[in-house]
């Protein structure tokens, strides 16, 4: 049982550890379901690419990384079949990265796996306690869930 006078540094480390556990479990299950090449960074990238696609410049801006870093990640995801590059129909100089059906499958499976992981937490903690935890985190954090610049933020440390 944890003491109520835990040091202040423990809270962010516990939150990070919980995040890491969920992401590690997600990727283990994704690998079992046919997506062994996905890495945690890829989830941020694929969310940023979204259903409409994006350029490397826009992707870098959303992720808080350089155009070159975004381009390398697009290359990696293209090599393993999650992303394809197409020419923008409005401006043939622009290359758009789009998710392939395989990439969309990974995102769909990820959502289901996260639902399963959340259900496991509800079983372990109790649904009421999990709802309270989520409500408390909503009070303490900004409204925007989709803060995709975490990779760039970690890289700037």
From TrEMBL:
GO terms for biological process: response to stress. One of its GO terms (molecular function) is DNA-binding transcription factor activity. Pfam families: MarR_2 (PF12802). It comes from Nonomuraea mesophila. Gene3D superfamilies: Winged helix-like DNA-binding domain superfamily/Winged helix DNA-binding domain. Signal peptide: none annotated. Residues 8-142 form the HTH marR-type domain. PANTHER family: HTH-TYPE TRANSCRIPTIONAL REPRESSOR YETL, TRANSCRIPTIONAL REGULATOR, MARR FAMILY. This is MarR family transcriptional regulator. PROSITE patterns: HTH_MARR_2 (PS50995). It comes from the Bacteria. InterPro entries: HTH_MarR-typ (IPR000835), MarR/SlyA-like (IPR039422), WH-like_DNA-bd_sf (IPR036388), WH_DNA-bd_sf (IPR036390).
């Amino acid at each position: 049982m944890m003491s109520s006078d835990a040091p202040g540094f423990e809270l962010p480390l516990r939150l990070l550890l919980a995040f890491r556990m969920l992401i590690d479990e997600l990727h283990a299950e994704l690998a079992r379901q046919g997506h062994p090449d996905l890495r945690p960074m890829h989830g941020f990238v694929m969310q940023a690419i979204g259903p409409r696609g994006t350029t490397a410049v826009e992707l870098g801006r959303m992720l808080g990384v350089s155009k070159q870093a975004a381009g390398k990640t697009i290359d990696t995801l293209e090599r393993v079949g999650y992303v394809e590059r197409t020419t923008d129909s409005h401006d043939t100089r622009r290359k758009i990265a789009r998710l392939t059906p395989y990439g969309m499958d990974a995102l769909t499976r990820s959502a289901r796996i996260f639902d399963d992981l959340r259900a496991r937490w509800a079983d372990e903690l109790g649904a009421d306690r999990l709802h309270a935890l989520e409500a408390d985190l909503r009070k303490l954090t900004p409204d925007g869930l989709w803060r995709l610049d975490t990779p760039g933020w970690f890289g700037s440390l």
